[in-house]
Amino acid sequence: MDDPKLLIYAALGLAALATARKALYDQKLAAIPVAGSSGFLASYRDALKFILHAPELIQQGYDQYPDGIFRVARLWHWDYIVCGPKLVNDVGGAPEDVLSFSGGVEELTMGRALAENPYHQHTIRTSLTRNLHRCFPDVRDEIVCAFDEVLQLQGSEWKALPVLPTTMAVVARVSNRLFVGLPLCRNKAYLQNNIQYTIDVIRSAGRITLWPGFLRPIVGPFISNKEKSNATALKILGPILEERLAKEKELGPDWPGKPNDFISWLLELAEGEERTAPALALRILSTNMAAIHTSSMAFTHALFDLTVHPEHLLPMREEVERVVKEEGWSKAALNNMVKVDSFLRESQRLNGNGPMTMTRKVVAKDGFRFSNGVVLPYGSFVSVASRPTHYDPSNYENAAVFDGFRFARERAEQKLQEDPTKDIFKRHMVSTGTDHLPFGTGKHACPGRFFAATELKAMLAHLVLNYDVKAEVEGVRPADNTFGPVLMPNSTAQVRIRKRQ
């Protein structure tokens, strides 16, 4: 078939066959209720609606089946959405060889190579988390330098800044202070490549879902610049990685002067082909994507919330001043900034990265059986209705209202009661549970949440201590951007900021 038109017609024909096969396949699951319409044509209308109105569809299903399972139509398959603590625990507790976390995200974010051997996640969960106390002075130093150099404020004048790009620039520097250290964490070309890769992955992840699965490997290179970013990362990181590998080979794994950074921690676990510069560069780039995306989104939302709820600024400033005066700047001191922690947790509760989370793929050949008896077959995709859970009044009083110190009050009340049956740690920012899902819950709860929380709390504490902020338009919070299952803070909205007066 040399004629391009014939290739297009053939692809469309195969897509139609795949669609028909999928429609027949899903007849086996007809008993699972639908949020929207279940008819062949009507479900495609809902699949198109999902692209711009996913939160409304997921909320509709949750309202109807708050402790059950429902499905929503996507262009090429059904997504199965679970609600209620019991079923959420079923998903969170399932092993990787039954419900696969990697399988749920590989084609959208990680790529197959990383998904098949995600050892870097273990590095994040163990070495990175263990070293947060030791490395906190570096984190703090980079926050101070990054805020000064990125914001570039002069005198007492207010300056309008685009929040998301500014936040990404700061987060990239702070994260890479631990990942690759000085001076590379301040290299503009290196930082810009990581930021652009993050933007590209998130953007292309939304676009790739518009194509059937069998065509995604073909169209992927045309809608993503990931290979270009990979090449740039290798060009910059390659000499450093080769030097590290050479020193390990010559002097052993604990050679004198070995940096205490993410590269060293990766090398502790990397084996075989993973111990090469290209493979290591890809791991670092992927870890950057996860860190920059999650922390930048969370801090941008928090800053928007602070500007439309300015009554929270002075109490947080007073708390930070008191704690720093008593303890200085340390990881342990952050643990006593209860209002800062609560503010960030509340912002995360109301502003997740989408209406659903904890996406998994059923990889067990005989399917996955929920505790209520429902069985999803091999190849199905299942997620948790996170946003409706966070807005559920049975989980939170005045659930739709932003209350920045909600969790600080709960912790104080529980401390006064001294009730050993109540776990006050359940209201910490890093704590997960079936009613609080920004980091997921269960076996695959976000491995980097301890680093993210440390970074975000240190950044917010520095902000409220040293700067004044206000909304671009008083009392108006910029609307989020929605595309399919992704919710993002407005990418062009600004806030006004000045040095503390």
| Beta fraction | 5-15%
CATH topology: Cytochrome p450
| CATH architecture field | Orthogonal Bundle
Q: Please give the radius of gyration in angstroms.
A: 23 Å
Proportion of residues in helical segments:
55-70%
Order of strands in the sheet with most strands: 1-2-8-5-3
Mean pLDDT: 90
Supply the CATH superfamily name.
Cytochrome P450
Structural class: alpha+beta
Number of alpha- plus pi-helical segments: 19
CATH class reads Mainly Alpha
Largest sheet: 5 strands, mixed
**What's the total number of strands?**
12
**Unreliable spans:** none
End-to-end Cα distance, whole Å, is: 71 Å
Total tally of structural domains: 1
Outline: globular
Describe the 3D structure:
Helix 8 (163-179) crosses helix 9. The longest helix is centred in the middle third of the chain and has 32 residues, at 277-308. The chain has 19 helices and twelve strands. The relative contact order is 0.15. The protein has a five-stranded mixed β-sheet. The chain has a single domain (31-499), classed as Cytochrome P450 (Cytochrome p450). The protein is of the alpha+beta class.
Write the layout of secondary structure elements.
Elements: H1 4-25, H2 40-64, E1 69-73, E2 78-82, H3 85-93, E3 99-100, H4 101-110, H5 112-116, H6 119-130, H7 132-151, E4 159-162, H8 163-179, H9 188-208, H10 216-223, H11 226-251, H12 262-269, H13 277-308, H14 313-327, H15 331-334, H16 338-350, E5 357-362, E6 368-369, E7 375-376, E8 381-384, H17 386-390, H18 406-417, H19 449-466, E9 467-471, E10 481-483, E11 486-488, E12 494-499
Parallel strand pairs: 2-8
Antiparallel strand pairs: 1-2, 3-5, 4-12, 5-8, 6-7, 9-12, 10-11
Helix pairs in contact: 6-12, 7-8, 7-19, 8-9, 8-13, 9-11, 9-13, 11-13, 13-16, 13-19, 14-19
Cofactor: heme
GO molecular function: heme binding; iron ion binding; monooxygenase activity; oxidoreductase activity, acting on paired donors, with incorporation or reduction of molecular oxygen
Protein name: Cytochrome P450
